[in-house]
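User: Please predict the structure of the protein below. I'd like the answer in C-alpha cell form so I can feed it into my own downstream comparison script.

Assistant: Understood. Taking the following sequence of 202 residues as input:
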Amino acid sequence: MTSAGRGSRAATAGALLAASLGVAALPGVARGEVARSPLGVEVDVPEGYRWRPDLAPRPGSTTVLHLEALEEGPRRPVLLVNHAFKFGATTEDEVFAEARAIAERPEDAVFVTTPSGRFLRVDFPVEVPPRALRQRVYVTVRGDRIYSFFLANTDAERFAAAAPALDGLVARARFFAPEPAPQAGDGPAPAGADPAAGGAAG
C-alpha cells in the first residue's frame, strides 16, 4: 500500500475513534421526530432520546446527526451518525478493516444484515479516566460515502441496556441521494453540506 493509502487508513481509523467521544451539554429539542441530514441519511429518533439539530457540524467534524438520551448529567449516552467520503482507490474491504481494528477481540467485530442493509458492527472499549466506556459502531459503505452509526459516551455497565437503541435506529435507517448544496448567491449552505460542492465539511 502507498504512503498515501496508509495515511488515509490511519486518518479514517482515527476519525472513527475520535467521533465516538463526542459529548454535548446544551439544552435540546423534543424527541419523536425524524432526524435527517442532507448528506443522504435519516433516522427515527428512538424512545428516550432527542435529536440535537442545533449542534450543526463543525469544520473538520464528520458527525452529521447527534441524538442524546433524555436524562441529566454529563454521562448520558449519545447516538451519532457520521458521514465521510471514501477517497481514491480505498476499497470497501479496507474501510471495514479500519473499523475492525478498533475491536479488542475478533468476536467483537461481526457483519450483520438489517432491513436497512449490511453493516460491520464493532463493539470496543474506550478509556476516559476515571470512566471505562464500552461503545458500538455500525459501518456501511454506500457508493463513495461511508456512514458510521455510534453509541457513544456509554459507561461499560450501561452498555447492554443502551445498545438496543442504536440497534433499532440502524435497522430503520434510510439512505437517499445526497441533496446538492446551494450555489453561490442562494444563501448559506445547509449544515453538513457536501464539501465537494463547496459547503462545510461533514
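That's the full C-alpha cell string. DSSP finds three helices and ten strands in the chain.
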